[in-house]
């Protein structure tokens, strides 16, 4: 039936564009379709016309409703022909046309006749077509035949019925579920694919019955499955059973032996499915992983790209949770860096970056450098992100990694790629102090030749913040001033602002900055000129002795501690009048605090836009806020501000949370209050604190909130004195006291008279953790060794029965309020012991390092060994005290 | 993961990325333009790779794509991101080899278009609504080609009389096709013998 061989003639080129469908037209083909109605059917001709119709549909042509109906009715006539080839095309055509319910009736009888035909091919195809186009009512009529077909001795017929069952289960589950006896029988079929289809259907029928699935899996894993595809299914169902059996007991996992046995199957697809299933087991142990990793390692050196890809992709996932398990494959993985298939190469590199140790970084970087030039941007971004996390993991390697980033920054690349690199450098500068100066210079060099305005302005802004704080700020000036000459107006304006920041923060540079700013006064862009004028005036560059207040300077150059959303809203509401806009009237709602979690691993740093709004400024904001209150101004340096603690249930009349500010000799409670009742205005809001359960604290000051209108948060403060430098703890009960005034909702005006009222708040505790700052160290072991054992204190504690090891670890971390280092706060599932590293700064600026070793003692009891090193014995003791009393 | 392996679509494109035959089982691409855009992007992404000796693989927009090229034809099978890559490649290989058998080893765009009915039937026999029906190329080609023959018998095991019957069909078909095919043809039985 195929075309005879065409000899490769010389004139073949002329026909290169030849297509049997050249110039085909829907209208003409629909005309041709009239041959279907001929009393003397020509099967060949009809087949050709159907092929043409299918070709049109395949090319995206659509038939109108009328056309489709016409074609459908014409096609149904073709059932008269006994030609098998034509019948096959008719089946395909009917499926493509997906006729409507009333049309289906026309072909039902023909299809049912075929379904009971003696010809296997007719039976199989008629079942598939009928099940595709049928609805529930018809299904009951043919159910009997379908059940028979499932156990038909011809595998093609059985498969057709089973696959149709899989589809029908979605629409008519109650009918298909009645077939489970037949399906069960088909699972035992000797024909490979029948077994596969039967297993898939049987599982879908029973998927909500855990016991049945369990039984199915246990009986089949004993080994009666022949087809590789069915075996893959069985592996999937088995891992599902393992997952749901929630076996918390350590020891042998049920069915693990089956999975491991599948690693020795003769079909690669089964081996891989099993290996993947093992790697994805909950809390997989190293012992369980090893055989799976071994087969995946073999796949890595396969000649087939698909096998290599599958293996490296799986190993890459394993490396995220079990980097050590994958290190054995590192040599094979390194050879994949030069793989033709770039997806494989990228996966190999990112895996290596995850599993690599400090010593292999340099070698790895050399290999990656060669590779970077010939992959697409999307892959490069993945690599850049992997390198960023590697650098955060091994801060000592920042030099070579930073160099790598700056090198690729100079090469060609699109915006997203460049942004990923710049973001990475910014994050490294923020998190690794040693990397700051080189990183800033790399960024300076980059803006010399940067085609993306967005990136240039962001970098200039970042330079303005970080540059003046470096040892030699003057070296950045040249790079910045060059922008004023060579760039578009947006970048020029940003450069002017950055220059001014240098001028404001570095007094020695001031005269030189003035010279540069004055040159900008002749810029042809308004914004640039305006900015230069403004800065010259405020900084006193125009010669006049300007006594601009500190606050103006602070306002222009300090970090903006007002949430931008609030500022935007206030500006929108501001109506131009005699009264000028007062920035201090903008609410400083502190609800959404991104509190000092900047080093929390796993959290994606927000990149370039973030620095001004970043965590340090939050602390700054608190500090500024507190110092602006005269009563608290002499408390000294703010040591720590806690995360807000809610003192009210959600959705109550008044929402109050409290931030604890710890000073050396004082504690200030900042109550953030929100009034959620539109008809009320609260005035003279205070919190009455009862400190009878906090003996060491004495109230010294409080600052009431004058007025608290609806939905506009405000703060009231209460300050306590406490013994200097000690971690005094205590419990405080709180009562909100205020004067309520009714507000007319239509006018928004409050009545003159108010009523005094009180509102009970929840208790608040000052705990030991409030006296420890979360401060991470980049290399815990170095820090630990440098600290020395002089002031080391070691002791063991029994933590009693705990839900899990992870729960115990988190409880201790919360108790101490210290920063977990190197990701050790994550406890792998099912592990019996765990070591957690913490670091922090104790009140009085004493560095503290803690090593916690947890072990399960019996089924649930957790024992802990606590080793503390600090610069001061008493502090080490104090940490033990906290744990002992916690 | 817990479900049956699923094929999202088959694409058979020519060397310029135009459709020869496609079949979508997933409704992730609701319109023809969405389909065409997907095909175009996929084609340009894979075009420069060498997938002629071994099937190649790529991740693309949260799909796994396995593909293989021969002459001016590009075969693609698309599956979900979490799918077992080796199952996908088995399906691809089944499709690829079955087309090779059906076109008697003469796999190129022209031949594929001239035998589009066979290609479409072939797709119909490999996957039904996303569920894999058959992956063995001989079985697939057998079901498509040997209408009057036992469906499971591979082409290579056809008897002489069946081969002759097929040859007769050639003759009839070629005569009918003459209106489009101004090509000299040779009904040689050698070709039949060597194609199994």
Question: Could you characterize the architecture of this molecule?
Answer:
The complex is a heterodimer of chains A (886) and B (196). Chain A is an alpha+beta fold and 886 residues long. Chain A is 50% helix and 14% strand. In chain A, the strands form three sheets. In chain A, strands 1, 2, 3, 4, 6 and 8 form a six-stranded antiparallel beta sheet that branches. Chain A is globular. Mean pLDDT of chain A is 81; it is low at 1-15 and 589-617. By secondary structure, chain B is α+β, with helices and mostly antiparallel strands. Chain B has two domains: 9-147, 2-Layer Sandwich (Beta-Lactamase), CATH 3.30.450; 149-180. In chain B, α4 (116-126) crosses α5. The radius of gyration of chain B is 17 Å and the shape is globular. Chain B starts with 6 loop residues before the first strand and ends with a helix. The model of chain B is unreliable at 148-159 and 177-196 (pLDDT under 50). At the A-B interface, α2, α4, α6, α8 and α11 of A face β2, α1, β3, α2 and α3 of B.
